[in-house]
Design a protein that fits this description.
The chain is an alpha+beta fold and 472 residues long. It is 64% helix and 8% strand. The protein contains twelve helices and seven strands.
């Protein structure tokens, strides 16, 4: 579809350039005709103006053709400036066509309908050129910035085992074999409600179906909690999904029960966590901390890639920034939302790990407590990194806004100076444009030169004052 659109644009551009070439040739021959009859023309100065306007019109049409050919050949990767230059020259060429028609009409002392038709047709062709060139605009501003960092994807799993045992030699979970003691069980919510004691269900029933944060709560000998990982955090870790990850857990009498849906991202997350095991665990509850931290460790590479993209975006902040790049606000907004989700994830996970550390220490699992404390510090560092990158995004946006505001202020200052300079001129022309009979200055022989000299003096005095005040 895109190739078809490009071919149609190229064909239209060839037609427009051919018409501009014909128009330039006609203008050139018209200029030669006018120059050849200047000697016989009663108003030679008008004919000279017509000849100059016609020549300039022909030259600008040729310039349009040359510039668009260079643009079409793709000599530069970023065509923003080239397109802007082509469009500026197209506007000037259209204005010259109209000037050519006006001066031609003045020379003939009549409105030539054929000349009017040619002028309108030429302006239409130049207008088509203007919009065709606009479609050729592409920028390298976003190169290497908008591309999402590619991380290793999550594994694809089929059936996931429902029962696991803790291998004493390696400290890792593995599927339970006949005769082995199960220490981790995976249940659905309905399966859990069927076999859990009523007093325990009463404590956690309100969170089973509405998990919205990561938590860990100890009530007597039982430990209850939940894990919540937003979709943005999962995508940053390399897991392409639009669903939030939610599940609950219970730890009682050395048995860890994971309560999660039968289908969904939770089972894939569990399978990936079993593959990524690296801790030599002394208690099954440590697996909860390991699951979340292994995902968090994958975020370091993502944050590093994101920081590199933002730094490259910051390098694009220079004196040539005239306006906010297209899609800039949306990009920065999405960056800050994703980083905000990671910060929230780190904050909740850090709180959960601190609670798990206390639970392990209370149960006499000093090794597990030290492991959870170490993982809590890793999460805290990740939160700081995410905050730094988020602040960097905000600084870059503020830098672009400040640069654009400075440029706008400079433009307004220049326009104000121009307006101030011409205010006395407008006052004088308005004064002498009054239709009063008794205006003695009008009868003076040198009045025109006196007024012109006075205006030039006023302009010079204004510029001197502005420069003295450093207004420009």
């Amino acid at each position: 579809m895109r190739n078809t659109s490009t071919k149609q644009r190229n064909v239209a551009l060839i037609v427009v350039c051919a018409l501009l070439g014909v128009g330039a040739a006609l203008c050139f021959f018209d200029m030669l005709y006018v120059v050849g009859h200047i000697a016989n023309d009663r108003a030679a100065y008008v004919a000279i103006i017509v000849a100059v306007a016609t020549l300039l019109d022909a030259l600008f049409m040729l310039v349009l053709i040359v510039e668009v050919v260079a643009l079409w050949r793709g000599e530069v990767a970023d065509t923003t400036d080239a397109v802007n230059r082509c469009q500026s020259h197209a506007i000037a060429s259209c204005g010259l066509c109209i000037i050519d028609w006006i001066t031609d009409s003045l020379a003939d002392n009549a409105v030539n309908e054929y000349s009017l038709f040619v002028t309108v047709a030429t302006c239409i062709v130049i207008g088509a050129y203007y919009f065709l060139v606009k479609s050729m605009s592409h920028t390298t501003f976003w190169d290497g910035i908008r591309e999402t960092p590619q991380l290793s994807p999550y594994i694809t799993v089929g059936d996931v085992y429902m029962e696991f045992t803790l291998d004493a030699s390696t400290g890792r979970l593995r599927p339970t074999k006949p005769g082995a003691t199960t220490c981790v069980t995976v249940l659905t919510i309905d399966e859990y409600l069927e076999q859990a004691p009523a007093n325990i269900i009463q404590q956690i029933i309100h969170t089973l179906r509405d998990v919205h944060r990561s938590s860990c709560i100890q009530l007597g000998d039982a430990v209850f909690g939940s894990v919540f990982i937003a979709a943005e955090v999962q995508r940053a870790a390399g897991f392409e999904t639009d669903d939030d990850l939610r599940f609950s857990y219970q730890f009682l009498d050395g048995m860890l029960t994971l309560i999660m849906p039968e289908d969904g991202v939770e089972r894939i997350f569990l399978a990936q966590s079993l593959v990524d095991q690296y801790l030599a665990k002394s208690m099954a509850l440590s697996f909860i901390a390991e699951m979340v931290v292994m995902l968090a460790l994958r975020l370091y590479n993502w944050l590093s890639a994101y920081e590199s993209r933002l730094l490259k975006l910051g390098e694009n902040l220079n004196d040539e920034v005239y306006e906010m790049p297209k899609g800039f606000s949306e990009f920065i907004g999405s960056v800050r939302r994703e980083l905000g989700a990671i910060q929230a994830f780190c904050r909740q996970t850090g709180d959960m790990l601190e609670d798990l550390t206390q639970v392990a220490r209370n149960g006499g699992y000093e090794r597990a407590a030290n492991q959870c404390a170490t993982m809590s510090r890793q999460i805290a560092r990740l939160a700081l990194d995410a905050a730094d990158v988020r602040d960097l995004a905000g600084e870059i946006r503020a830098g672009f806004q400040e640069r654009i505001e400075v440029r706008q202020n400079n433009v307004m200052s220049m326009l104000t100076i121009v307006e101030t300079v011409f205010t006395p001129l407008v006052l004088v022309t308005g004064w002498y444009g009054m239709n009063f009979v008794n205006m003695p200055e009008l009868k003076l022989h040198d009045a025109y030169f006196i007024v012109a000299a006075a205006l030039i003096f006023i302009i010079a005095a204004e510029f001197a004052y502005f420069k003295r005040r450093r207004w420009f």
